[in-house]
Amino acid sequence: MKISANKRILVTGGAGLIGSALIWRLNQMGCDRILVSDHLNLGEKWKNLVPLRYEDYIAGDDLRAKIAAGEDLGQIDLILHMGACSATTEKDSDYLMRNNYQYSQELCRYALKHGAKFVYASSAATYGDGANGMDDAGELEPLRPLNMYGYSKHLFDKWAQREGILDRIVGLKFFNVFGPNENHKGEMRSVVNKAFHQIRETGRVSLFKSHHPDYEDGKQMRDFLYVKDCVEMTLHLASSPLAGGLYNLGSGKAQTWLDLVEAIFAALDMEPNIDFVEMPEHLRGKYQYFTEANVARLEKTGYTAGTRPLKESVRDYVQNYLVADCFLGDGADE
């Protein structure tokens, strides 16, 4: 499906980090026939929407009620389902099952019934500690997520496969996404966001010590993906006739927390000043020491844009958004 100005698009989680970045990029492409859905509640997530153009807004609970009642939402050509509980530390399993599993089922069934392309957020958290690989072409059954968040995402992947529809939809296994429009995420903000504020306040930053014999302090490795690259990959897959199934979305290159933090200090023109602190007990058994996206399946669909270098991405985020205290669409990217 070619994404164009005449297409009408539903973006759930539209005020969140990835959802609002998708709307920002769609606006740049000339698309504003967008129905936004989210749970805005009492926070300031709404601020992410202010610079963006969209047709209408519907609260997440109201959207689910309309779908359950069999109401027609009008022309919907594409559903970008980013709406979910994204807190990896959430302990309310029933809440996660309702929001990440059942909600996804409802929207997926609606999309298939009404001929809309369905693109949804899975997660690299479904891979657990990576002992069974991080291959988006691999078997789902051996995967063992480390937390309930990852398990709720994994269950939907497995449901779609069991129903025989996984190849008709697109699931995105996001790795460590960071960038503008994440201020509302509280403790779930990226290390870039948290470290920037720490450095501004104290001139220093804290990182967790390693509790794994194979990794030195600060040498734990993650695949960091800038949100601007993330949305390019997402919209490529949404428009590609070759896309179907699960796709890793990452840079394809694991880098250390030290690499990340040193890039933040460099963006602020400061010398690194790092303290290593004990990791909380409740996180130690659920901590991923190494993640790296194999993006071969993504590239087979014709994606050739690659990703920005980590230092460049961090510099853009820090200098054009964090220091400027602005949002996507507020000027630095226009």
TrEMBL record:
<feature type="binding site">
    <location>
        <position position="185"/>
    </location>
    <ligand>
        <name>NADP(+)</name>
    </ligand>
</feature>
<feature type="binding site">
    <location>
        <begin position="17"/>
        <end position="18"/>
    </location>
    <ligand>
        <name>NADP(+)</name>
    </ligand>
</feature>
<comment type="similarity">
    <text>Belongs to the NAD(P)-dependent epimerase/dehydratase family. HldD subfamily.</text>
</comment>
<dbReference type="GO" id="GO:0005975">
    <property type="term" value="P:carbohydrate metabolic process"/>
</dbReference>
<dbReference type="InterPro" id="IPR011912">
    <property type="entry name" value="Heptose_epim"/>
</dbReference>
<dbReference type="GO" id="GO:0050661">
    <property type="term" value="F:NADP binding"/>
</dbReference>
<comment type="pathway">
    <text>Nucleotide-sugar biosynthesis; ADP-L-glycero-beta-D-manno-heptose biosynthesis; ADP-L-glycero-beta-D-manno-heptose from D-glycero-beta-D-manno-heptose 7-phosphate: step 4/4.</text>
</comment>
<feature type="binding site">
    <location>
        <position position="45"/>
    </location>
    <ligand>
        <name>NADP(+)</name>
    </ligand>
</feature>
<feature type="active site" description="Proton acceptor">
    <location>
        <position position="185"/>
    </location>
</feature>
<feature type="binding site">
    <location>
        <position position="187"/>
    </location>
    <ligand>
        <name>substrate</name>
    </ligand>
</feature>
<dbReference type="InterPro" id="IPR001509">
    <property type="entry name" value="Epimerase_deHydtase"/>
</dbReference>
<protein>
    <recommendedName>
        <fullName>ADP-L-glycero-D-manno-heptose-6-epimerase</fullName>
        <ecNumber>5.1.3.20</ecNumber>
    </recommendedName>
</protein>
<comment type="subunit">
    <text>Homopentamer.</text>
</comment>
<feature type="binding site">
    <location>
        <position position="222"/>
    </location>
    <ligand>
        <name>substrate</name>
    </ligand>
</feature>
<dbReference type="Pfam" id="PF01370">
    <property type="entry name" value="Epimerase"/>
</dbReference>
<feature type="binding site">
    <location>
        <begin position="82"/>
        <end position="86"/>
    </location>
    <ligand>
        <name>NADP(+)</name>
    </ligand>
</feature>
<feature type="domain" description="NAD-dependent epimerase/dehydratase">
    <location>
        <begin position="9"/>
        <end position="250"/>
    </location>
</feature>
<keyword id="KW-0413">Isomerase</keyword>
<dbReference type="GO" id="GO:0097171">
    <property type="term" value="P:ADP-L-glycero-beta-D-manno-heptose biosynthetic process"/>
</dbReference>
<dbReference type="GO" id="GO:0008712">
    <property type="term" value="F:ADP-glyceromanno-heptose 6-epimerase activity"/>
</dbReference>
<feature type="binding site">
    <location>
        <position position="194"/>
    </location>
    <ligand>
        <name>substrate</name>
    </ligand>
</feature>
<feature type="binding site">
    <location>
        <position position="153"/>
    </location>
    <ligand>
        <name>NADP(+)</name>
    </ligand>
</feature>
<dbReference type="InterPro" id="IPR036291">
    <property type="entry name" value="NAD(P)-bd_dom_sf"/>
</dbReference>
<comment type="function">
    <text>Catalyzes the interconversion between ADP-D-glycero-beta-D-manno-heptose and ADP-L-glycero-beta-D-manno-heptose via an epimerization at carbon 6 of the heptose.</text>
</comment>
<feature type="binding site">
    <location>
        <position position="287"/>
    </location>
    <ligand>
        <name>substrate</name>
    </ligand>
</feature>
<keyword id="KW-0119">Carbohydrate metabolism</keyword>
<feature type="binding site">
    <location>
        <begin position="208"/>
        <end position="211"/>
    </location>
    <ligand>
        <name>substrate</name>
    </ligand>
</feature>
<keyword id="KW-0521">NADP</keyword>
<feature type="binding site">
    <location>
        <position position="177"/>
    </location>
    <ligand>
        <name>NADP(+)</name>
    </ligand>
</feature>
<feature type="active site" description="Proton acceptor">
    <location>
        <position position="149"/>
    </location>
</feature>
<feature type="binding site">
    <location>
        <position position="176"/>
    </location>
    <ligand>
        <name>substrate</name>
    </ligand>
</feature>
<feature type="binding site">
    <location>
        <begin position="38"/>
        <end position="39"/>
    </location>
    <ligand>
        <name>NADP(+)</name>
    </ligand>
</feature>
<feature type="binding site">
    <location>
        <position position="99"/>
    </location>
    <ligand>
        <name>NADP(+)</name>
    </ligand>
</feature>
